[in-house]
Every structure is written in C-alpha cells, then in structure tokens.
Amino acid sequence: MHVKDVLCVSRFITSRTICPLNSLERSGGESTKLLNSYMSSTPFETQKRFFHKYFMIIFEIVRLCKILRVSENLFPPLYKKINTKQFVCVCVSSMYELRTPMLAVMDVSMLKTILVKECFSLFPNRRNLRLNGDLYDIVSLSEDDNWRRIRNILTPAFTTGRIKEMFEIMKQHSRKLTDSLRPKAHNEEVINVKDFLGAYSLDAMASCAYSIDTDTIKDPSHPFINHAKKLLRISIPLFLIQGFFPFLLPLLEISGFSLFPKSCVAYFKSVLEKVRAERRGGSHQTQMDFLQLMMNSQQEKQNKGLSDHEIMSQAIIFVAAGFDTSGTTLAFLAYNLAKNPEVMRRLQEEIDTTFPSKAPVQYEGLVNMEYLDSVVSESLRLYPPIARIERVAKATVEINGITVPKDMIVTVPVYALHRDPDLWPDPEEFKPDRFSKENKQSINPYAYLPFGIGPRNCIGMRFALVMVKLALVEVLQNYSFSICKETEIPLEMDPTGLLGPLRPIKLKLVARSIASANVDN
Ligand code: HEM
C-alpha cells in the first residue's frame, strides 16, 4: 500500500486525494481489483454502500463546517479521528462530494486517456449543476457539439497575432502598476500584493476584452472590481441544497435560482450592452478586443456564429475566468520570490540582460526568457489557482482495468498531483530549475496541469502567461520583493473558492537603482 501524508480535512480534494475505504496502488494489484469491483457493479451502486456513503457525508459536513467557519470545537472527536486515521494518498480513489460519487484520478496514464485521447468521445464535458441563471451558455459549461462550436469560434481570438496586438494594451496597465508601487516602495510600506496585482489583471482583462478603462489600480472601490470578485463566488447554501436534495434541481431551475450572483451578472450585462450600443452607433473607435472579435464572427460565420446572448456570456466569463486566476498567480509569484531572494536575483539578471537599463519590455524578448518561464512554471506548480479540474464520463468505459461508470464525475486534484513526491522530488520546495530547458524534457506532461490539458484546456493560457510575465518583469525591473514581519510563512490556504491564501500576502518592496533607458511605451 502506498501510504503518504495524513491529510488536511478541509481541502481533502484539492490538497491530497484521499481514500479512506478503498484504494489503488500505483502498481495495481489487489487493491485494483477491490476498486474495480467497487466501481463496476451497476452504475452508482457505490451510492448504496451504506458505510461509505454516510461516512463521506459526515466527512463533507465537517469540511463544509470549516468552510462556513463553524468552530472546529463542535466536532473535536470526529476531527481527531479524521486527522489521525491512516488516510492514504493514492493514484485513483473514489469519494463523495455531498451525495455525488466521484473518481479522483492522479494516475498519469489514465489522465492522458481522460483528458486527451478520449476527450471528444467520452469525456468532453465538465460537471454542470444547471443552476447557471443567465450564464447558461458560457463556454466553460457548454456541452458536446455546442461547446465545440463555441470553442472553435473563440479560439482565433487567442492566436499569437492577436495576443501581440493586445500586448500593447497590457503595457499601458503594467506601466500604471509600476507607477502605483513607487510611493509604496519609497515609504517602505507593507502592501497586500494582491490588491495591486489583482487590480492590474482586472484592468488589463477589461481593456483586452471590451476596451474599457476601469483603472481599478487607482480606484480600488470601482464597481467593476467588486462585481468581478463576487461573480465566481457561487452561493454555498444553494450548492448545499442541490447537493443534498438533487430532486429539487428542476424546481430550483424553473424558479430561476442561480449559483452565480444575479446582481453581478446584471452589472456586467449593462456594461456590455452600453459598449455594444456605442459600437453599433459608430460613436466609438473600434478596437480589436475580444468583444469585437466575437461580434465580427457573427458576420463571418453567418448562422454558425455566436448569438448576441452567447457573446455576452463569453465576454463576462473571460473577465471572470482570467482576472482572479492571473492576479492569484502574480501574488504567489511575488511571495515565492520574496522567500527565495537568490531566485529573484537570478531572474532580475536575466531581465536586465534581456532589457538593459530598464528598456521597454518587448513581446519577443519576453516570451523567449527561459528562466522567467521556469520561475512562473514552478510557482504555478506549487500554487495552481484552479486546484482541481473535472470531466464527466459520457458512457461506461474501462480505463487501465478500472471501470468508470456512465455519468461518473472524474476529478483531477491538480494541487495534489503537483505535490506528489513520486512525480516531483522535494515537492514542497520552490525550485525553478525543474523547468529548465534540459530538465523539463523529463517532466511528464500529465503531471503538470495548471491550465489543464487537451482540447478542453484553458483557452486563455498563452494570453494569461504573457499578461503575468509582463507585469512580473516590469515590477522586477524597478523593485525587489521582500518578506517582512507581517508576511505569513507558511501560508494557510483558504478552503473556499479558487486556491488562495486565507489571509492576504503581505510584502515590502525595495526600489532598484538601475539607470533607466528612454522609455518609449
Ligand atoms: C494564470 C491564469 C489562468 C489559469 C491558471 C487558468 C486555468 C484554467 C484551468 C485549469 C482551466 C480548466 C482546464 C481543464 O478543465 O482542463 C481553465 C479553463 C478555462 N479558462 Fe483559464 N486560466 C487562466 C487564465 C485564463 C484567462 C486569462 C482566460 C480568458 C481570457 C481564461 C479562460 C478560460 C476558459 C474560457 C476556460 C474554459 C475552457 C473550455 O471549457 O473550453 N483563463 N483555465
């Protein structure tokens, strides 16, 4: 039996895949048979396994109590039991989320089959809780042929040519970011890094998506940032209700309940309608932003183009999906660099060589920086903002001897995968050289999934990487990050929502004294 760390109850899916009652060793064997017999009886036979079912429901209640900040003292004996019981970290395990049975997969060859080889035929979709309100047609929740159609129309917006065009827009915001940090460095203030880096990501996303200038770096109380932050915070009570009482789903759906906050969706709709109306009236100089590219697709593809409603939904989800993930990535990068000053110095040397004397950052130079790429990759390994990805089986299928029943949710615990000691030596260490040109050949592509993999991976991956790298380079041209007594080490993670720290990451900035070149951007 492959016994690894005892697990943290609050993040059991995202931190380590656990399997209290059944398990599969990496090499297969007896436990494979056990799991298989468990999985391959009638579909969802698992639900009927009395002990497992109720054990996991209790387990979930405890986890949710923690999410809801209910005191751990309410359940001291159970906590003790869970924390000391020999949970094992395994490659494949089954579990429950509320009443939903799931298969958690960390086996890289199974991941290849699920995420790539059989993506179109057997695993094209994510779980869809149906209560999506007005966002029912966003690409991330669309299914089958409809998803393929929307994804095909959106893909050309993320070509190198398009990203290069948007690079100039991003630069306006990275300049504002470095300017806003100057007084903070000068006054040696302790800053919440996410306030600045998140605002940059949002402003850059809003400009690239709809050419609107939110300037939330200057105005942190702008309604755009408040609504964007809330948009992906799904309603926990509604999630619990649909989870425990799935028979109520049709009723909730008909009654118009939505997991996404309605007021936020309405806000984004009104912003977008205003922008579209201005464009139709010709009073606005048209930029090639995501919105315009989608509007153009209506003419090019006639009947196969996106409908007006689909355009609105994608425009909203781009900003929501892109801003927090990128802002979180930047905040963790700042934290990792502050904790590892020798890595930061080496990165600054590469930056100073590529863009001497603080020369303006150029697209080609940026995307070709090797050490920068290693640093960003390693930070995303340790802190992947989307800590878990999912697919749903369209039909019953056997993969590597394991039967996956139709409609079973397959979850990939990315955070756990990225810290698996069998795949990553010294998994808790920040070592960018794992991703050096020579070393990265030996990394299994299915062991590293910050953006997912295969046809349904993150559509904005290359765009996000450019946005993140640009901000990091410009900030490090001018400042160094430094830990201070307010910096929490190690970080405690927030068990809710996307991966993020429970309390803000606080750092100081030290201005760098390099003569600057004539800045032309
Ligand atoms: C560092 C930043 C980002 C990270 C870490 C990230 C990560 C991810 C991950 C893990 C997925 C799921 C992949 C899968 O299921 O295999 C995803 C999907 C998606 N991401 Fe990102 N993302 C980032 C930035 C962005 C940006 C900037 C955009 C938009 C411009 C974006 C748009 C999307 C969309 C639309 C999907 C759903 C794709 C589909 O279902 O076809 N993401 N992202």
UniProtKB/TrEMBL annotation:
Keywords: Heme, Iron, Membrane, Metal-binding, Monooxygenase, Oxidoreductase, Transmembrane, Transmembrane helix. Its EC number is 1.14.14.1. Pfam families: p450 (PF00067). PROSITE patterns: CYTOCHROME_P450. Heme binds at residue 458. The chain crosses the membrane at residues 231-252, 315-338. Its cofactor is heme. The keyword Translocase does not apply. GO terms for molecular function: heme binding; iron ion binding; oxidoreductase activity, acting on paired donors, with incorporation or reduction of molecular oxygen, reduced flavin or flavoprotein as one donor, and incorporation of one atom of oxygen; steroid hydroxylase activity. InterPro entries: Cyt_P450, Cyt_P450_CS, Cyt_P450_E_grp-I, Cyt_P450_sf, Cytochrome_P450_3A. It is an enzyme of class 1 (oxidoreductase). Belongs to the cytochrome P450 family. This is unspecific monooxygenase. It comes from Myripristis murdjan.
